[in-house]
Specification:
122 residues; alpha+beta; Ubiquitin-like (UB roll); four-stranded mixed sheet; 30% helix
């Protein structure tokens, strides 16, 4: 399906995204709603759903663990890296999710991240 190559923002209007964010915030006030998408050069599979909820007190290492679990079949021989979509800088895994969201969230409220991989030897 070709629509999978479009970004979350391309598939959803600003109003739709803002409404979804508000629903997540109302239902899960201690969780950070984020959108994580595959980088265009990434060879790993697309996630079934780009929306992820993670506890605000968790660190980026937990997000990496969640991502590795979702991509398990294709990520055994590679390292996965996470980047802020808005700045294309690497997401520091020691950061708390609440801090990351406060500093990098989009106007719609979501924290946008991309994942990429690098093949490893061994």
């Amino acid at each position: 399906m070709q629509f999978q190559n479009l970004s979350y923002k391309d598939n959803n209007s600003f109003e739709e995204r803002k409404e979804k964010f508000q629903i997540y915030q109302q239902k899960h006030p201690t969780k950070i709603p984020l959108i994580i998408e595959r980088h265009p050069k990434c060879t790993l599979k697309l996630l079934d759903r780009p929306e992820v909820l993670i506890d605000e007190t968790q660190k980026g290492t937990k997000l990496l663990q969640i991502l590795q679990e979702k991509l398990q079949e294709n990520s055994k021989n590679c390292s996965i890296f996470i980047f802020y979509t808005n700045t294309n800088t690497q997401f520091p895994l020691e950061s708390q999710m609440k801090e990351a969201a406060q500093n990098h969230k989009d106007e719609d409220g979501f924290l946008y991240l991309t994942y990429n991989n690098q093949e490893t030897l061994g």
